[in-house]
Amino acid sequence: MLEVLARVDEAGLTELAADAGLPKTTAHRLLEQLVAVGGVERSAGRYRIGGTIVRLGHSWTSHRVLGRAAALPLRHLAGWTGATVALVAPVHGRMVIVNGLSGAADAAFSHRQGMVLPPGNAAEVVMAAAAPPAPPPPGQLPSEWEERLRAAREHGAAVHRWGDDVVLSCVAAPVRTRTGKVVAAIGTTMPDSHRLATVTAATRRAALLASANLARLPEARRL
Prior knowledge:
Blueprint: H1 2-8, E1 10-12, H2 13-20, H3 24-36, E2 40-43, E3 46-49, H4 51-58, H5 61-81, E4 84-91, E5 94-101, H6 122-129, H7 142-155, E6 158-162, E7 168-176, E8 182-190, H8 196-215
Antiparallel strand pairs: 1-3, 2-3, 4-5, 4-8, 6-7, 7-8
């Protein structure tokens, strides 16, 4: 049930039960048990991941280290761009927001701590570009995926545009350990692409600063 909520962000009982392949009575019982311990929040008949799960995930040592390294670069990036910014890291093969700061894209897409990003996002491109070859995510043709990886390697950042009513542009740049391993990404999301070049440059700088901070932290040796 938590995996379903992580994918859809927020939904009602009927949708969650169908996605989880459970009877509504079973889904309701599980959800109410999770609500009771703070693992799920309920509002107006809809459910979403609760604060307890977010705090437990955030307490994971590697995420704490990444958060420390990226905290100041994220604040500077948010202040300079006015955009929504986030530190994103992989958890069990999915890209998850470790830290997020509010900005211009919040009304269309909230970058809440603990949120799982959809497949094919810019942060996933950045991670995949530095990893051994692997199949593309669902909905992405192999040729298109390889072109996105090539562009990320060439430019040191990845760009992803999506949305229906509001088109969002997201730029992600890699955060590296002192050995050069890519362990996370800093992303900047905005509801337009007019400043894409300058925002891309600023996002790369923030990721470089976070990487430099990470290299100075003794705990980062375990990453």
